[in-house]
Amino acid sequence: MKTALAPARLGADDVLRVGLGGLRARPARVVLSALGIAIGIATMVAVIGISSSSKEDLLRRLDRLGTNLLTAKPGDTLFGDKAELPESAPGMVGRIGPVTAVGATGSVTATVRRTDRIPDEVTQGIAVQAATPDLLGTLGVGTASGSRLNAGTGRYPGVVLGSEAARRLGLDRAGGQVWIGGRWFVVVGVLRPAGLAPEIDRSALVGWDAARRYLGFDGHPTTIYERSTDASVGDVRDVLARTVSPEHPEEVEVSRPSDALEAKAAAAGAFTGLLLGLGAVALLVGGVGVANTMVVSVLERRREIGLRRSLGATRGQVRVQFLAESLLLSAFGGAAGVVLGAAVTTGFALWKDWPPVVPVWALGGALAATLAIGTAAGLYPAMRAARLPPTAALAAP
Amino acid sequence: MNTLGADAQGENIVELSGVTKEYAGGVQALRGVDLVIAPGELVAIAGPSGSGKSTLLHMIGTLDRPSGGGVRVAGHAVADLSDRELSALRARHIGFVFQQFHLAAGVSALDNVADGLLYGGAGLTERRERARAALERVGLGERTTHRPHQLSGGEQQRVAVARAIVGEPDLLLADEPTGNLDTAAGAGVLALLDELNRAGTTVAIITHDLEVASRAPRRVRVRDGLVVADERAEVGSR
């Protein structure tokens, strides 16, 4: 009996070899059409990576700063005037059970200047504030130079500058003098950025008693900061206004500074849809480019296809060959895009001093998108190639 | 169909009976061709362009199906075979040599020849080993790493011949094998085909060149879609 005729299977390694061989014959075209995919994937990976890095940075800061800080500020009175908090308020807050630390600032009308020769109006946006001795401990702000105010320095004309205030005054270390309210104050310390209380960064802090003695401070706090245990933040929040101002609790504004950071982190995590959409469009255009390249390739390679059919390739094997080429083409693009996107993310994050983060799901998504695009782009050209008759090899050029 | 029950070895390699081929538009390329090629033959199928010899090549090479009549190749009735089975038939039983060589540019002679086994199921190592042997048979054992553009036309056609015979097919089908070569190179390729035939390979050469055809011991003349002459040379004439 004659032997049954069954086509031999083409192994995966041979499919890969044939596919790569087809691409190697036209390197410039491969690079150009893979570039489209690369740009699309790189855009999407970078958009996701940068927003993830930004979110990670905010979350880490939040972690470091804590979410248990509450502030109380005077709101408006019934008549629309600025309310005033009682002088006793910080002490009262300190007596709330779960509260672990209390600090307060009070606005002082004086201005701070580098020397007495600078006009009074030039404030440079720096507020002079009276600070209780526990303020910096409550906020967890360290000093970049010098020391904090203590019970001693708080009584004498000494000042601690917030990080931004120091920069604006051109003083980066403790030891100098500044002109506040008609007299020299010694710069006792310069602070690091305060994180949760950016208003402190732009302040010149004078001791509570010194402010009363030298700067005419009335003793009414304008912001009270308190920290409690994490679990009791909600309970403290409920009683804070009444504790601060038992007679007019409605005139007290209570807020949680970490809420703003948390909202920012959530917004940063929700990467901008517009940019992601742009990346998707680039990817789509890249896919069309690959499809176009493949169609042209099939047209040009009619004779090669005919030859393969005459060598015994089945229609399926021709189809697989062109599909493999299309997949490899977009896989090259996708790999280049992932590398490029990760590099852009890393570079941008390092420049911004963020921890570089490219989520694993973004890489998986990029891979899936690449394979989907490669398949979609290769399907039609592969079908066309498979439909070519074996006699194509013999057709006149 | 195969009542003799013989293996392809013992029966005719090609059997065409009353084969007709009509193309869309009503062109009658073949009008009833009977042709038998026995194992070990060297046949030249000659005819002017438009005679139907290319269509005849398609039929013998199972690259196309007839409109009417029967085609049997290596014992298989083409009409009974699916496209997949026809592919397997070509992979195992027929080796093609084309006028334009059809070698892959930028690929070594060895791998070009090895591709002749790509669809036969052998692994890469075995394919390359057999390709090396085939290149030695056609006298290009020293040229295995050369790329097509580093070879002369005659050498390129030898590589193509090596690719056709690497799978040890029952039939070597050459379509105008000397059409793109100068006289000396063409003579070399014909001598090679002759030599392969003496070693046992069945060879069919399709050509319009009567001089090429005259060298073959059997000459089939085709004109207007019919076989008009089937001459065999006397013993010892070649």
UniProtKB/TrEMBL annotation, chain A:
Per the record's keyword annotation, is ATP-binding included, yes or no?
no
Organism annotation = Actinomadura darangshiensis
Q: Which family does the entry's similarity section mention?
A: Belongs to the ABC-4 integral membrane protein family.
- Could you give one GO CC term from the UniProt record? plasma membrane
Q: Tell me, in one coarse class, where this protein mainly resides.
A: membrane
Instruction: State the name under which the record lists this protein.
Output: ABC transporter permease
The record's subcellular location field reads:
Cell membrane
Domain spans labelled ABC3 transporter permease C-terminal: 278-390
Sorted UniProt keywords: Cell membrane, Membrane, Transmembrane, Transmembrane helix
Stored Pfam families:
FtsX, MacB_PCD
Q: Where are the transmembrane segments?
A: 30-50, 274-299, 327-351, 357-380
Show where the MacB-like periplasmic core domain sits. Answer: 31-225
Membrane-related topology note: Multi-pass membrane protein
Q: Entry's PANTHER family?
A: ABC TRANSPORTER PERMEASE YTRF, MEMBRANE COMPONENT OF TRANSPORTER-RELATED
Kindly list any coiled-coil regions of this protein: none
* Keyword Membrane found: yes
| Any GO MF annotation of the entry | transmembrane transporter activity
Automatic annotation (TrEMBL), chain B:
In this record, what's one Pfam family? ABC_tran
According to the UniProt record, one GO cellular component term is:
plasma membrane
Residue ranges of domain ABC transporter in the record: 14-238
User: Per the record's keyword annotation, is ATP-binding included, yes or no?
Assistant: yes
User: Keyword Transport, does the record have it?
Assistant: yes
Alphabetized, the UniProt keywords read:
ATP-binding, Nucleotide-binding, Transport
Q: Which SMART domains match?
A: AAA
Q: Which InterPro entries match?
A: AAA+_ATPase, ABC_transporter-like_ATP-bd, ABC_transporter-like_CS, ABC_transpr_LolD-like, MacB-like_ATP-bd, P-loop_NTPase
For this UniProt entry, the molecular function terms from Gene Ontology, in alphabetical order, are: ATP binding; ATP hydrolysis activity; transmembrane transporter activity
Q: What is this protein called?
A: ABC transporter ATP-binding protein
Q: Source species, please?
A: Actinomadura darangshiensis
The taxonomic lineage of its organism, from the top, reads: Bacteria, Bacillati, Actinomycetota, Actinomycetes, Streptosporangiales
